[in-house]
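Exercise 3.2. Students should predict the tertiary structure of the chain below and write it as C-alpha cells, then compare their answer with the key that follows.

Predict this chain's 3D structure.
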Amino acid sequence: MQEKPTAAELEVLAIIWDLGEASVREVHEKLTQEKETGYTTTLKIMQNMYGKGLLSRDDGKRRHVYRTMVSQKDTQHSLVKNFISKTFGGSTKKLVMQALGQSDPSREEIEEIRAFLDQIENEKS
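Answer key:
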C-alpha cells in the first residue's frame, strides 16, 4: 500500500469499495447520510487521494469517475497489523482478548470465531 489512508479517506474508500466506482457527487451523497460535510471537502479529499495513488480517475466521461487503487483486504491487513504493533505491542492475543471483552458476542459469532481458530490451528499443524 502506498500511504496509509486517513480516517476521512477510509470513509471514501469504503464507499467506493462498496459501489465499485463512483463520482464525487455519489461519494458525497453517501457521506452526508452519516454526517454533514461540504461537497468541496469531499472533492478535495478525493483529489488528494488521487494524488496519493489511492484512487484512479477516468477523465474520459463528462464527470470524473473514481476507482480504488488499493484493495480492501490489503488495506485492512496493513492497518490492523500496524494497529496491533503500535497498540498491543504486536500481541494478537491482547487485541482479541480486548475486543471480546468490550463486546457481547452472540453464540453464532463465538462459534464462527471458534471455527476460525480451529482452521488456523489446522493450517499450522
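Discussion points: The first strand starts at residue 55 and ends at 58. The mean pLDDT is 92.
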